[in-house]
Amino acid sequence: MATWLADTKKWIKSRKGQQVLICVAFTVIPLFLLFLFTYLPFGQMVKFSFYKMKYSTPVDKRVFVGWKNYIDVFNRKDCFGALKLSVYYCIGAIIQLVLSLYLATVLSFKVKGENLFKGLMFFPYLISGIAIGFIFKFFYTRGFVLDTILQGLGISLDSLPYWLKDQKVNNWSLVATSVWRYFGQNMVLFVGAIMSVDAELYEAAQLDGANRFQQFRHIILPSIKTIVTLNVILSITGSLSAFEQPYVITDGANGTGTYFVVMNEIAHTSQKVGLASAMAVVLLLIIFGCTILQKLFFKYIFRDAESEEESYAAKKARIKAEKAAAKANKQKTMAKN
Amino acid sequence: MKRKHLTIQATILLILKYFSLIFFGFVAVIPVVSCVITAFKTSEEYQSTNVMTLPESWLNFDNFIKAYQAANMGRAFINSLIVMVCVLVVSIIVGTQLAYVLNRFKFPGNTLIRNLFLFASLLPGVAMQVTVYNIMSSLGFINHLYGYIIMMCGTDVISIYIFIQFMENIPVSLDESAIIDGASYWTIYWKIMLPLLKPAIVTSCILKGVGVYNEYYAANLYLQDKDLHTIATSLYTFVGPMGSQYNLICAGVIISLLPALIIFIIFQKQIYSGITAGAVKG
Residues 168..187 of B with a Cβ closer than 8 Å to A: which? Predict the structure, then answer.
């Protein structure tokens, strides 16, 4: 017993023991939180999707209903059908991507007041969702901001639709809000990626007489390929799970209820937790499916370019390693002194 | 001849360039500017004039005062501040510690932990709240600031990536020489890593801070008590009976976004770099 204790003490004091201790100590809390607020609810979601229950239903009163909730998701008109609204958001996401790519390219050339423009376009991203709801309820109200501007351009009020009530346009109004909110953030992302391109490349291209479009096509686009791909994937999964704009602006009224808005209502207003869980599981499966398909698709498209990029990455890594080594050597000699 | 052709093309490009920047700059600010204009109008003025007509007086702060009191925004600012400070302190400490361990030590499960966090970031928040709500209520966390704070600490992935990315550029030889000098791992983390991580910490503080400040969905679910409203949820006061008094609502909205605007003006560069760093890895 005594030797065992002494051994443990010795082990704790050893390097190896210290390493294990610090690894455990530093990962316990984040892993616990991750488990508690992500994986435990995830497991519960799968389990609840087979039950008929409310939040307040005691554990023993919950009724097991098998696949009924899943059948309901596909049969109820308001559930699965709501996914078709994603098409609007997907088109919006593509417009947003093209627009922000264009603006980022413009900003990457010499522009006066670059920071001002960048700031103005980025700021909407920092406004809270609920504030955006109020701003755009106001913006789209009959005879208010948007109508006034359009009237100023010579369009009569009678020919304008009710932006949030008319089912022909209201989803587009919401999509426009989403584009308004995120295009500046996207643009900043792309500007960052473009800036990381070697400036010498542009100079060389200009010397060779390449015009702006050629510069964009052959220098900018290849170098920001990864981040554009990432954004395409994000925008498709994002449009499947579109939620905020309809939730805060129209509350899902007049045919603007996206899948998640409907799910949110079923969960927190009607308290049909089982059905809502089934809806969540179905959409998660669709999102995973989409993500995997897209990854494969882009891998297939970029299979030729891969080798080229790899060598570039390898070169970069080598330079980085050399620099780090030089620095380390310097520090070592300094430490010795 | 050729030269002239080129200048025409260049001029067109120049015009197109500034036209698109000015146009989209306008598009970006008009919804907010119209709100500012309306916030300065008296009720009669608001009723009688067009929304885009400038207010008679830019010094009419009545709406701001009324909105501030109606939504109890003083209390809400304090709540938001408490939530932000707690969440930032906890998630910075926990996040840097995790990043330190994941970056510096090879142990079984290292990749698994990274993947667990990555997978978690794929799950949409709204869907998760369906069952997180159940957990929060069984823990008795609903309508308590601490409950909301603990939940907000647990849902952070991007800042961990920013930290890991930053640590990759801190040479391991620093750790090694410290070990030779007899430093413990804790000392290395506390005395070497944390100070060197400062730029990454600032970036992640700003990004996460703005995120927490603007969070309204979960705050609305878990902090329904009026005294527990944060700035974002205090705006819910204007839903309902006050729903058409837009001069008041706009004033409330403007008050709520002022702090974010100030932070943005001061820390523009860090915000941009944080957005870029977070996206590349995430």
Answer: 171, 173-174, 177, 179, 184-186
